[in-house]
Amino acid sequence: MLASFLMGLVGGQRSMTPLAAIAVPAARGDLPRDRAAPRIMGDPVVVAGALALALAELAGDKMKAAPDRIVPAGLVARLVTGGIAGGALAPRGRFWRGAAVGGATAVIASWPGWRARMAAMEDHGQTATGLVEDALVVAGAAAILATLRPDETGGGPPPRGPDRSRGDRDATFAAHRNDA
């Protein structure tokens, strides 16, 4: 659940970045197979939409008319996207727990991120602080994904049946129970 929590932190700063961060590797088949990412995350339409929304948010954040991240609509967006990304990064079978962790973390992380940004803007302005925050958020999302076990990637659904190579006794039990 650590990856779900960390992606929630990212979502607290930029609401659309977590979706794009999950959709792109999902489309390439680069998410570990033991994660709960729904197949739809890798759909080309979802990937294009997530990227477009993330890029629009990165650009729009520098505008003077941009709303604060702590307005109700912004918090709802963070709850939903942090939840989807958190669920996708959770271990398989724990999507909803990961979604709760990611969504709650995104909402809670919005306030300290907003306070830090407001304080930094007094000295450095909206554009400069926004660009630094963008760099930190994108680098953070990339780092979270890089820590996932790349040796277990391969795209698509996990293989059917137990993974006997790792001595997965629970999967073996489940497979025998389902065969009966």
Describe the protein in words.
By secondary structure, the protein is an all-alpha fold. The protein has one domain. The protein is built from seven helices and no strands. It is globular and about 45 Å long.
Features:
180 residues; mainly alpha; disordered C terminus; single chain
How would you summarize what this structure contains?
With 180 residues, this protein is mainly alpha-helical. Helices cover 68% and strands 0% of the residues. The chain has one domain (2-179).
Taking all Cα atoms into account, the compactness measure Rg is 18 Å
Total discrete domains: 1
Distance between the termini: 33 Å
Count of individual helical segments: 7
Strand content: under 5%
Number of strands: 0
Global morphology: globular
Q: Can you give the mean pLDDT?
A: 86
Please give the largest β-sheet: none
Q: Helix/strand-derived class?
A: mainly alpha
* H-E string: HHHHHHH
The helical percent reads 55-70%
Uncertain stretches of 5 or more adjacent residues: 151-180
